[in-house]
Amino acid sequence: MADLIYQPITQLAAALDAKQISAVELTQAVIARTKAVNGRLNAFNSFDEADALAQAGASDARRAAGQGRGALDGIPVGLKDVIAVQGQPLTASSRMLAKFVSPYDATVTQQLKRAGAVLWGRLNCDEFAMGSSTENSAFGPAVNPWDLTRVPGGSSGGSAAALAAGTTVATLGSDTGGSIRQPAAFCGLVGLKPTYGLVSRFGLVAFASSLDQIGPFARTVEDAAIVLGAIAGHDERDSTSYRATIPNYRAELGGRRGPWKLGIPKEYFAAGLDPEIGAAVERAIAFYRSQGCEVKPVSLPHTQYCLDTYYIIATAEASSNLARYDGIRYGHRAAQASDLVDLYARSRAEGFGAEVKRRIILGTYVLSSGYYDAYYLRAQKVRTLIREDFLRAYQEVDALLTPTSPIPAFKIGEKSDPLAMYLCDIYTIGVNLAGLPALSVPCGFTSGGLPIGMQLIGQPFNESGLLAIAQAYERAHDWHTRHPSL
Ligand code: GLN
Question: Domains of the chain (ranges plus CATH)?
Answer without folding.
Answer: 2-263+396-481 (3.90.1300.10)
